[in-house]
Amino acid sequence: MSQANRDKTVTIVHLMRHGEVENPEGILYGRLPGYHLSELGRQMADRVADTLAGHDIAHVAASPLERAQETAQPVAKGHSLDVVTDERLIEAGNSFQGKTFGVGDGALRRPGNWRHLRNPFKPSWGEPYIEQVVRMSAALDAAKDAARGREAVCVSHQLPIWSVRSFVERRRLWHDPRQRECTLASLTSFTYVGDSIVSVSYSEPALDLVPPHLRAGAARRRPPRKG
Asked: What pTM value is reported for the model?
């Protein structure tokens, strides 16, 4: 293929968030091993695989974590492909990994946590946003090269997906986590012409399987508290 024609090649890379995880204790599991998809999570992965069945998928990659690998398997199987493990797709590093940490649980009042919360713009509690953008951009480019002229699916995690999308769409990287548009088993799709991203789209093939409080924008849709 000549360089002139190569530059006009359209390639689509879908960044897919993994499905629901079996986590009855509500641990912030981060990069910890041993966290697998729940039965509902497996249904979500199957639903997305069915949605992508008619697409020209040439490459499937996933974070090394079990929940991402298990989410990628149905898509890869449907296209007679192997799942390529890409370390760059891994979850963001987080100092609160292995703990329960959420709104209303008292974590912000614990003195031992304060040192991790000094800079929400970086953020100081985990892997810097810009470092996530750099590695995720490299993973996107690698998938684009592997599937040039066709489509690729890369299974990753909410924050890295949202960070690279925000960068591509020229939004600030620091944000309210409740505002991320990246529901379980969603697809954030980057369309390339040649080596340049020309558009980003978002879809939720398994939305009807996702519990309402875990859907994108759920924080915005909740009624205000009384009192």
From this structure: 0.84
